[in-house]
Amino acid sequence: MRYVKYSVIAVLILVVAGFLHYTLPQRDIVRIVGVENRRIDNASNSLFWSQPDTGTQPGETRDVRFINTIRADGDEMVYRNEDTGWGWPPYFKVNTSNLQTRAQDLISTAANPKWVVVRHYGWRNEFFSIYPNAVGLRQIDSPDVTLIPWLNIVILSLLAAGVLWIRALWRRFWRRMVAPAIDDAADTWDRIDDSADAARDRARGFWSRVRDFIAGRR
C-alpha cells in the first residue's frame, strides 16, 4: 500500500506540474521571420486550441494566425496567435489582430536582427501539431537580456502559501474533530468488545454449571 500511496502522490504532482507549466506565462527571446494565416480544423487537437477570435462565430474550420520565429540559439519556434477572451487560461486576450500587426512590423533578417521577447503559454509539439499561444511582444536591444519570471514567482509563492494554509487548517480540523471522534469510536468499540467478552464468559459459566448438574444427576 505504501507504493500505491507514493504512486498516487507522484501522479498528482505530475498532473499539477504539467497544468501549471502549460498555463503559466513563459518568455522566449526570438527573431521574427514571418507571419501567416492558416485554415485549421477545429476537431484537430481541439484541447490545445483557443476559441475563435472575439466577435466571430465558431465553425468547423477557421483561420488561425501564426508567428514564425528563430531563437537566439538558431532553433525554430512557431507560435499561434489566438484570442483567449474570458475563457481559460485567464489572459483576457482580445487583441490578436493588433499583435499580428506588431509581429509583422518586427520582422527582421539574420543580417540585421530585431530581437523580441515573446510572452506565451502552452507547449510546442511537432508530432501533435501543438503550438504555444503568443500573448505579448516586446522588442529588446540584445538577446543576452536576463528575464526573471517575477509573475510566476509571485503566483507559485501564493499557491504554496495557499497549500500550506489549507494543510494547517486540515491538521487543525483533524486534531479537533476527526481524531477525537476516532478515539471515541475506538473506546466505544473496546467497551462493546469487553461487554461481549463478559457475556461470553457468563454464557460459558452457565453452560458449565448446566453440564455439571446433568453429570451429577447421572
Major sheet: order of its strands? 3-2-1-4-5
- Kindly identify the CATH topology of the largest domain: OB fold (Dihydrolipoamide Acetyltransferase, E2P)
The percent range for helix content is: 40-55%
Order of helices and strands: HEEEHEEH
Instruction: Report the biggest beta sheet as strand number plus sense, adding barrel if it closes.
Output: 5 strands, antiparallel
Extended strand count: 5
Give the termini separation: 60 Å
Would you identify the CATH architecture of the largest domain?
Answer: Beta Barrel
Radius of gyration: 33 Å
Low-confidence sequence ranges: none
Find the structural class using helix and strand composition: alpha+beta
Specify the overall morphology.
Answer: elongated
Description of the structure:
By secondary structure, the protein is an alpha+beta fold. The protein has two domains: 27-146, OB fold (Dihydrolipoamide Acetyltransferase, E2P); 148-218. The chain has helices spanning 2-23, 96-105, 150-217; strands at 26-41, 61-71, 76-81, 115-121, 133-140. Strands 3-2-1-4-5 form a five-stranded antiparallel β-sheet. It starts with a helix and ends with a helix.
